[in-house]
């Protein structure tokens, strides 16, 4: 028993250190939860100025859920700002409808947004609604495309329901 407790305590410390390293290195991090006073300021303002704006799909490094420092460069829908940080929802071309029960068991919620110029191969995309990313604008690799207002509003409304903003 003491070994298990010691192991768990050690792993908890490792997790805290990993989160701290990700935070200070300017990498994306996520928040998940219920209604909170710091709800994101959601805005639709895409501008063709070369800088990431709410309403645009950009490419950025997104950490895996495990929080172990690994991640992937992927498209992210910018939905707003919090101070100098960008707030976003990650996209994928993987179809999660096929394994919806498994996704729900892990608390992951997705919605389809169709195709767009952010995917060079024209594959349909899905947006993850349960994970709000906080991005340093300097970590954004490139601008992908602006999502039309109708789809943006639909995604934001669904994310609000899921996350309780």
From TrEMBL:
Molecular function terms, GO-annotated: DNA binding
Pfam families linked to this entry: PemK_toxin (PF02452)
InterPro entries per the UniProt record, alphabetical: PemK-like
Domain of life per record: Bacteria
UniProt-recorded name of the protein: PemK-like, MazF-like toxin of type II toxin-antitoxin system
């Amino acid at each position: 028993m003491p070994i298990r407790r010691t192991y768990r305590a050690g792993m908890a410390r490792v997790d805290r250190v990993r989160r701290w390293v990700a935070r200070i290195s300017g990498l994306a991090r996520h928040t998940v939860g219920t209604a909170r006073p710091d709800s994101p300021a959601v805005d639709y303002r895409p501008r063709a100025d070369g800088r990431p704006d709410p309403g645009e799909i950009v490419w950025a490094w997104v950490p895996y859920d495990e929080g172990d420092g690994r991640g992937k460069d992927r498209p992210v829908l910018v939905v707003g700002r919090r101070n100098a940080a960008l707030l976003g929802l990650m996209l994928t071309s993987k179809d999660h409808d096929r394994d919806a029960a498994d996704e729900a068991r892990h608390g992951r919620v997705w919605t389809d947004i169709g195709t767009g110029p952010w995917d060079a191969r024209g594959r349909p995309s899905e947006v993850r609604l349960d994970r709000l990313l906080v991005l340093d604008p300097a970590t954004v690799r490139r601008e992908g495309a602006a999502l039309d207002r109708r789809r943006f509003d639909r995604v934001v409304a669904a994310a609000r329901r899921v996350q309780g903003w």
